[in-house]
Write a structure and sequence with these properties.
The complex is a heterodimer of chains A (371) and B (413). Chain A is an alpha/beta fold and 371 residues long. Helix content of chain A is 48%, strand content 15%. In chain A, strands 3-2-1-4-5-6-7 form a seven-stranded parallel sheet, with helices on both faces. The two termini of chain A are 15 Å apart. With 413 residues, chain B is of the alpha/beta class. In chain B, the strands form three sheets. An eight-stranded parallel sheet of chain B has the order 3-2-1-4-5-6-9-7, with helices on both faces. In chain B, α1 (10-25) packs across α7 (194-208). The relative contact order of chain B is 0.12. The chains are: A alpha/beta (371), B alpha/beta (413).
Chain lengths: 371, 413
């Protein structure tokens, strides 16, 4: 039985890994083992995800915690190398673009263990984003590359990666979204929305965490003031990352916000999906939420100069905005003038099955070659 | 301009030496960080002295370890220095774990990385070095390639911003060079091979300062153009006693035919020969063995040899720098252009093939054989430092990263 290590480290990885884990468990000849590097380790960020996704405890928890980039990467490398030497897997699967993705793919390749990258080929073409380096390096060392959309294939082709290694399988996060939302009864969803004092289709959900938005006083202040103004028209709910809350206090911004502007604690995944599902529209700077909004057909304003997920704009409901035009765009949404959008091909909840099939073939082909 | 150069293994000391010299000439502030990957103090020390390399400002003393572990310890050590020194950019060399950590640590802190010897590919992903090369190139802002082949490798990986470098006025022996490209990272430039710079420099010093090539040759009882210089150290040869035996047999037969064979023995090779009981093969009139020789001695010996027999990558190239033909005791080579043009011959670890290649070479007239400058003009380091200064200035003035050309700038080599 081929042993496959599924490596996760941070919140955006978990919901990409879960569907693959279950698909592999179902596909008998594969033995999936979960490795959690511990990059994101607090309860809401990590443990609650595992519960919401009904995942077993990780088979290996590396507990590397926070630290500077290099310290974190270094600890992940050391601990993951030990796991590799002990488990001798046939394949390592990494997800997305976090530090663990890079550290683990490089460590595995140095031990000559094949690597598969789920969510390959994404590019923002913004080299100042640490994620962009993580993506490029992971893709260039990987043996199997699973892309969510045709733009990913094209980016990889341009970087000289042989298309024989590339499989367009769709968006695995949508697998998670579908299965979780299906498991929450409509009445239960309503309760969750009510708990925040909100009503369906009558609030804006905001998520911001990028340093360029929340780590500089001027931009954070501008954004909060805008959201406060927006709350005069429609309630705004903003679950904040602990770091952002710290910034708000440290910058001394905490002015008197309207009651309709609710800055709340981080929300666990199933509740967050519910809030998304019922929102009027979304303001975000996160990658995955642009995709979820496109799938749900919700208008989405992305507060970034670029996106590594352009299909959410060309086919979906997403637009890039900055502080000079966000007001105009949100007015258009509230006036009901927004593009309809469509769900991109293969974003159908069956991505994990497709990946599993490819991996099965890969592992059985590899076995016939003496190692 | 404040530069942090990161070295750790023998080939990197050599490459950094030349670049370092140039940096001092233009008054750049260069800090040298030695990871200690090659921890043999004697070996490192010799290099620092002989190559006029400044003593490291930081020594991490990492030593050996598993790949991940070693890289990890370097990462944290390097990051600490980066945070303390806040250099304008980091320069890394070659393809070792030091290179890998030296690129990953700054890239995460948004400190630009320059890679010297970028774009080399063996296209064998079973080599850990190949992974290092690929990762480091994709982390780098400035990619200094030694050859056109390396540039093309990078173009295939999607690097589009390639500096055009050309020279003119070569007839008069002077060489000029210009750049013309977007002020954007990543930027790829063929600057030539720093190894050529150093080999030429050392050779000139040997001749000029009368360090006495004749002394060095005399020490082994050799006369110019009358001996074969041999180096064998690659695992594929030392770990396979039969391969080693075949190579030694070829050396024995060459010596029997009247050419002296000098064989400085790498410690690993000596151990392998002892273990496989091959030492008696060296008991042949005309075979002279020695301890490993220093870089300067090696240059002297290479430049005066009639023929080289080697499995080392660097030696194959150095042979060409000095116009000495070379038989390669390996099945493949990364310097394929030298095989194609006929200066070097691929024989593998096979007695007959080595002898046949050597005989063909000895019959041929190499004195008039063309020697294209695949590896540049011996001014790689000057070009590198010029580009580094431009880059640092451009960033300071805020024009780097903005669209527009650099314009044509002539550098007189």
């Amino acid at each position: 039985m081929a042993k496959v290590l599924l490596v996760v480290g941070a919140r955006p990885n978990f919901m990409k890994m879960a569907p693959l884990y279950f698909a592999m468990v179902k596909a008998q000849p594969l033995e999936p083992l979960i490795v959690h590097t511990g990059q994101h380790y607090d309860y809401v960020m990590s443990q609650a995800f595992f519960e919401d996704l009904e995942l077993p405890q990780p088979h290996h928890f590396l507990g590397t915690g926070s630290g500077s980039h290099a310290e974190q990467t270094a600890r992940i490398m050391v601990e993951f190398e030990k796991v590799l030497l002990a488990e001798k897997p046939n394949l390592v699967v990494v997800f997305g673009d976090v530090n663990s993705t890079l550290a683990c793919s490089v460590t595995a390749k140095k031990l000559l263990i094949p690597v598969a990258h789920v969510e390959a080929g994404l590019r923002s073409f913004d080299e100042t984003m640490p994620e962009e380096i993580n993506r490029r390096v992971t893709d260039v060392v990987s043996d199997l590359l699973f892309t969510p959309s045709p733009d990913g294939d094209e980016n990889l082709r341009r970087e000289g990666i042989p298309l024989s290694k590339v499989y367009r399988v769709g968006n695995i996060m949508i697998d998670s979204l579908i299965s979780i939302l299906n498991r929450i009864e409509p009445s239960q969803q309503e309760q969750i929305v009510q708990r925040y004092g909100l009503t369906t289709r009558n609030y804006v959900l905001v998520t911001l965490h990028r340093p360029s938005n929340v780590d500089e006083k001027d931009s954070l202040e501008q954004i909060l003031m805008y959201l406060n103004r927006l709350a005069a028209q429609v309630p705004v709910v903003f679950p904040v990352h602990p770091r952002t809350r710290k910034n708000i206090e440290a910058f001394g911004i905490e002015a008197s916000f309207r009651d309709a502007f609710r800055i709340v604690e981080p929300v666990r995944y199933r509740e967050f999906l519910t809030l998304e599902n019922h929102a009027r529209f979304i303001i975000t700077d996160s990658g995955g939420i642009q995709e979820e909004a496109t799938y749900l057909g919700l208008p989405c304003l992305t507060l970034r100069p670029n996106t590594e997920r352009p299909i959410t704009i060309t086919e979906g409901t997403n637009e890039l905005v900055d502080m000079s035009n966000i007001e105009e765009y949100s007015s258009r949404i509230l006036a009901g003038h927004w593009k309809q959008g469509q769900v991109p091909a293969l974003w159908d909840g069956r991505t994990a099955e497709r990946i599993t099939e490819v991996i099965q073939d890969y592992c059985s082909a590899a076995k016939t070659v003496p190692s | 301009m404040k530069v942090l150069s990161i070295v750790g293994a023998r080939p990197q000391f050599i490459k950094a030496a030349v670049v370092s010299q140039q940096m001092r000439q233009v008054g750049a502030k260069e800090l040298l960080l030695h990871t200690g990957q090659h921890y043999d103090f004697n070996m490192s020390e010799v290099f620092f002295r002989e190559l006029d390399l400044p003593q490291p400002d930081y020594y991490l003393g990492i030593g050996s370890g598993r790949h991940g572990e070693q890289t990890a310890r370097m990462l944290t050590g390097i990051e600490e220095v980066l945070l303390q020194e806040d250099p304008d950019l980091v320069v890394v060399y070659g393809d070792t774990n030091t290179t890998l950590a030296g690129a990953l640590a700054p890239v995460k802190l948004h400190i630009p990385v320059a890679h010297v010897e970028a774009g080399l590919r063996s296209y064998n992903r079973q080599m850990p070095e190949e992974i290092n090369r690929i990762v480091v190139d994709h982390c780098s802002d400035l990619l200094f390639c030694p050859t056109q082949t390396a540039v093309e490798n990078l173009q295939r990986e999607g690097f589009q911003n390639v500096g055009r470098a050309g020279h003119s006025d070569t007839a008069s022996g002077r060489c000029s060079w210009f750049l013309d490209q977007q002020r954007q990272a990543p930027l790829v430039i063929n600057v030539g091979d720093v190894m050529l710079d150093l080999a030429r420099q050392v050779n000139e010093r040997l001749q000029r300062e009368g360090w006495g090539k004749t002394d060095i040759l005399g020490r082994y009882g050799l006369a110019p153009r009358e001996y074969v210089l041999t180096t064998i150290h690659r695992a594929s040869n030392t770990d396979e006693p039969e391969n080693l035996r075949r190579i030694l047999e070829a050396m024995r037969q060459i010596a029997q035919r009247g050419l002296k064979v000098l064989f400085p023995v790498h410690p690993r090779t000596r151990k392998a020969m002892e273990k496989a009981d091959l030492l008696p093969l060296l008991d042949t009139a005309g075979i002279i063995t020695s301890e490993p020789v220093s870089y300067v001695e090696m240059i002297a010996l290479e430049s005066e040899a009639r023929l080289l027999l080697t499995d080392s990558g660097g030696v194959q190239k150095e042979a060409y720098f000095f116009g000495v033909p070379c038989v390669v005791a390996r099945g493949e080579t990364e310097w394929i252009e030298l095989i194609q043009i006929g200066w070097n011959r691929l024989a593998g670890p096979r007695t007959e093939a080595i002898l046949a290649a050597a005989e063909t070479i000895l019959r041929e007239d190499f004195a008039h054989k063309p020697r294209p400058d695949y590896y540049g003009t011996g001014h790689a380091a000057a070009r590198i430092v010029t580009v580094l200064s431009w880059f640092a200035e451009g960033r300071q003035q805020g024009v780097w990263g903005q669209s527009g050309q650099w314009g044509q700038s002539l550098i007189s080599d």
